[in-house]
Request: fold
Amino acid sequence: MTTMPSSPQLRKRLTMAHKFVKYGLGILTLLVLIFLLRNISIFENWNCSTVSALSRLQSHIHTSLSGPVQVYHHNHTYCARLGQKATPEEEREEHGLLNSITWPGPPFGSAPVALLETSDPAHSSFTMLPSEKKGHWYVGDQLEVIVQVYDFKGRPKGYGGDFLLARLHSPEYGAGVAGVVSDHKNGLYSVRFILLWEGSAQVEVTMVHSSEAVAVLQRLREERPDRVYFNSLYRLGHQSQTTVCNMCLPPDRGPLCDYTDPRTGEPWYCYKPRLLSCHSRINHAKGGYLKNITTDKEARLFQSGVNIKVPIRASGNDTISVLPSRTESKHLKPDAVNQATSGYYYQESWRTLGDIAMRHFDSSAIAQCLTNKVVHLYGDSTIRQWFDFLVKALADLKEFNLQSPKMVGPFMAVDSTHNILVKYRCHGPPIRFSTVMASELRYISNELDGLTGGPNTVVAISIWSHFSTFPVEVYIRRLRHIRKAVARLLDRAPGTLVVIRSANPQALDQQVSLYNSDWFSQQLNAVLRAMFKGLDVLLVDAWQMSVAHHHPHLLHPPPAIVKNTVDLMLSYVCP
Reply:
């Protein structure tokens, strides 16, 4: 039997309960207010974020964004298939392109292997095959070289996949031509050169990467598209925060801001800042490079001076003397090697083997050629070199100060005397420039759709280096958008001249190899050439123009090569 409290006791208990409830409601109100303040931007931008369970939200955001930068392993299929769904025809094209760049490799794939069992350029050698014409070589003939690759134990390799570059050159004549390499998939390689000048010619063969190193690069490309990561700064008033961005980010690490381009479907995401809206993004920048992405065994496959861009010696003579052509015909036989060779250097000047007559322009000739022209340069820093070259070459071409970041742009230069306008704009993400304002991030295809075009419009495009860390499907998708935009431009303005600049090799060490290897670049280069084949565009083969030159390979080629690439572009404009 329960005894009821007396009236004074009841009033005392009720008073205490009232205070407790009042205090509890105050605490609850305060907690709700804190929660709303910390998450208000989430509710404002719910449709641009992929949100985990609310109970885990703040801990995920704090772990991912406030502490040391964390970049996560991504699934290849998830990353590659973002963006607009490909049509059946586009899927067939993609499948064919991927098959065309399939690379032979070790029978054990990318499994770890001891350094002593991998390809060693110091033990390897090449041999020139003798001429079939009584020991004489003539202009227009082909020279064939056989390369035998050995491992560090001096044993011949039994499989292919090594990445080789070769050139035939003559310092005496300022001449050079790239060789066409064929992999016989058994440790033997053949290299063919067209003989294009009289006099001495010396063979040079370089192992860029062993087949085992290429297998590691293949794995990294498919499995680690996050090995270069990006940042964006968000700011509103006194609040600011920097978050990690990329083409694909795991949504379970926190809510995402979705910056997918509405016209092309090109994807781009950033982790959402804790207190700020997705609309408060200020800029885009390269965040950095992931370290320790290879094992110790794999790292030994990337050693400067040991197995990265090391010359292979000749087993005998490496020089021949070429006699004048025995025929009066200047046309080369239309075989695969000749078709694959776009040109050569002679007296330091590039000479094309195509239908275009190569011209070399001084300042007055450039001004005359570009009079009444608008030149649009789109892409990466290798096409920005063309802008810099033209500004330096033309005294009357004055750069207009747009207050743009140095080396980033956009840039514009005007020659009022000759009515010339030259503009440069970098391509959209992924772009590894230092800092690009978010408002200046543009996709090339969208920019092309905004051009009027016509006979006085020149468009030059270079886009390759910044895609080396992503699966090739990502690059194919980007080029497809650009190709469609080029086709639309040529349909509405048939007189527009469109020039595509190819990739080029560069200096490599261990770190550069893992993110920007020449092997990645040559794969993208093959895709680029194939995707624009048959379209009414013109190619500047910066790859062969760099391989054939005596200058060391550089990401940004030296002025001598830049001048030849611009001269080739101008030769298209003013044949």
Summary: The CA atoms of residues 446 and 485 lie 8 Å apart. The domain at 348-573 is CATH 3.40.50.1110 (Rossmann fold).
